[in-house]
Amino acid sequence: MAHEFVDTIVAQGGNAVVRVFEKRQEHDVVVSKQDLVSCDALAFGTPTRFGMMASQAKAFWETTSDLWLKGALIDKPACVFSSSSSMHGGNEATLLNLSLPLLHHGMMLLGVPYDVPELLATESGGTPYGATHISGSQNSTVLTQTEIKICRAAACRLLRVAEKLK
């Protein structure tokens, strides 16, 4: 999903990079607090872990009190995305959980508006709170066409708002 966000933003003329909370592959770049400060917008996502963000993401946000004290992220646009193994696997709870540190930092949280027709027709992932993916019992990383369109809509909206705020 993160790569779908990046590809969409780049295709629209923006710049985007993927950062991870924990290095798993040689090419992975671990997110830093400076990444948060220097970005124009943030798409924040993790897999669902019992209806919550992954512990690595929570641990990272717990290190950002100095940014909070300075108001370093106030008015920065952001959106959230997540994945789970089933339709009722906690995606919406995770999206709400992902939103909390962003709101505490004063960021501008963007959802997926209902003018995205796939939001009303999805039989897999996608919510007004953010883009989601349902991996199923086989743990598939392949997004459905509906999930892709919802990710793209969220990415385009994030870029559009970031450009308006520049």
UniProtKB/TrEMBL annotation:
Residues 1-159 form the Flavodoxin-like domain. The keyword Flavoprotein applies. InterPro entries: Flavodoxin/NO_synth, Flavoprotein-like_sf, FMN_Rdtase-like_dom. GO terms for cellular component: membrane. It holds the Pfam family FMN_red. The keyword Flavoprotein applies. GO terms for molecular function: FMN binding; NAD(P)H dehydrogenase (quinone) activity. Signal peptide: none annotated. SUPFAM superfamilies: Flavoproteins. Keywords: Flavoprotein, FMN. This is Trp repressor binding protein. It comes from Pseudoalteromonas peptidolytica F12-50-A1.
